[in-house]
Design a protein that fits this description.
This protein is mainly alpha-helical. It has three domains: about 140 residues, Voltage-gated potassium channels. Chain C (Four Helix Bundle (Hemerythrin (Met), subunit A), Up-down Bundle), CATH 1.20.120; about 120 residues, Helix Hairpins, CATH 1.10.287; about 70 residues. The chain is built from 15 helices and two strands. The chain has a two-stranded antiparallel sheet with strand order 1-2. Helix 2 crosses helix 4, helix 4 packs antiparallel against helix 6 and helix 13 runs antiparallel to helix 14.
């Protein structure tokens, strides 16, 4: 999808030197097919890990207020700014790119440069928010990987297929939460012998219900009466049933989506490793067919009728390839719209 919308030129276009440089930079950043592009990917990954590590280490009491952390932050942000500007220059359809999640990650990665040398005493809540938000750049490590988009699409499609099960789960959780909180509040309300009052109201007891239904059990709020413990046990059992049932729906939909992606040639598993199949353009396929047909027609054993027949078949095959590529491009571009129409038709039926 990224190549279709943002690639500046096609490989078969006649380009001048400046356009070739722009295309080469695009391939360096986004395609990662050559050794140089892979080295670039590794370099950016190392810079991201350095920035994240320094952001974590500077919170330690023994290493606070060290100037080295500000210098590292400034240097990393400077590299991210250069990368960001390069992306904006080399891609086409810049407005569409600015609405993508990848652009948001790139933008967040460069914001901390404005607060790199901000004094701790002068740090406001907004600046503190941006300093924490910079940790989201760890997602850039995933976005560099080609499989990142496939992972995202796989999860999103799975959750969209499971949306009805999730809605049902949320409804049951709310019902059990209100019912269990109301019962336990009436049973356990009041001040205990140690002077504490954990169940001050029904809304305050919602926290206990969620912790109990998810079987986390922090132990900071718990019933002490026999009847309260009995209802708490029932709440645990209901929580397990309510959460376990939609998980089977999600896992089933994940398997279906995985098979769908494999059938469409988006992913494949080879030697226990998940890979993206190599994509061949229609122009390359047509060129191979034309060269193959030319080699056949050059054989002396063929008659003129057979050569003419081969040329007609060649034209028919290349025309069909063009038609298939147009259909594929139209499907990929409007895939979400097509799925919405299909889902609406299914609901009507």
């Amino acid at each position: 999808m990224f190549d279709i919308h943002f690639k500046p030129y096609n490989n078969n276009d006649e380009l001048n030197e400046l356009q070739k440089i722009r295309l080469n930079f695009y391939k360096l950043i986004f395609n990662q097919e050559t050794k140089l592009s892979k080295c670039y990917s590794v370099f950016i990954t190392i810079i991201i890990l350095i920035a994240i590590t320094s952001s974590c280490l500077e919170t330690l009491k023994a290493y606070k207020n060290f100037m080295i952390w500000n210098i590292i932050e400034f240097a990393c942000c400077l590299i991210f700014i250069i990368e960001y500007m390069t992306k904006i220059i080399v891609i086409t359809n810049k407005y569409k790119y600015m609405r993508t999640f990848c652009h948001f990650i790139d933008l967040v990665s460069i914001i901390p440069i404005f607060f790199a040398f901000q004094k701790k005493n002068d740090t406001s809540n907004i600046i503190s928010f941006f300093k924490v938000l910079k940790l989201i750049r760890i997602i850039k490590v995933l976005s560099i990987n080609k499989l990142f988009n496939i992972y995202c699409k796989l999860i999103i499609k799975t959750m969209l297929k499971s949306v009805h099960g999730l809605k049902l789960m949320i409804v049951f959780i709310v019902i059990v939460m209100i019912f269990a909180s109301s019962l336990l509040y009436e049973i356990e309300k009041g001040i205990r012998n140690d002077g504490t009052e954990p169940y001050t109201s029904i809304p305050a007891t919602f926290y206990w219900s969620i912790v109990t239904m998810t079987t986390v059990g922090y132990g900071d709020i718990y019933p002490i009466t026999d009847l309260g413990r009995f209802f708490a046990s029932l709440t645990m059992i209901m929580g397990i049933l309510i959460i376990a049932l939609p998980i089977t729906i999600i896992s089933s939909n994940f398997s279906q989506t995985w098979n769908e992606f494999e059938n469409r040639g988006l992913i494949k598993v080879k030697n226990n490793n998940l890979k993206i199949p190599e994509k061949f353009s229609s122009d390359n396929i047509k060129l191979l067919i034309i060269n193959y047909c030319i080699n056949i027609t050059n054989l002396n054993q063929l008659t003129e009728i057979e050569k003419t027949l081969i040329q007609l078949l060649q034209k028919q095959i290349t025309d069909n390839i063009d038609l298939i590529s147009k259909i594929k491009f139209t499907y990929i571009s409007n895939e979400s719209e097509i799925e919405t129409i299909i889902n609406n038709d299914e609901e009507i039926v």
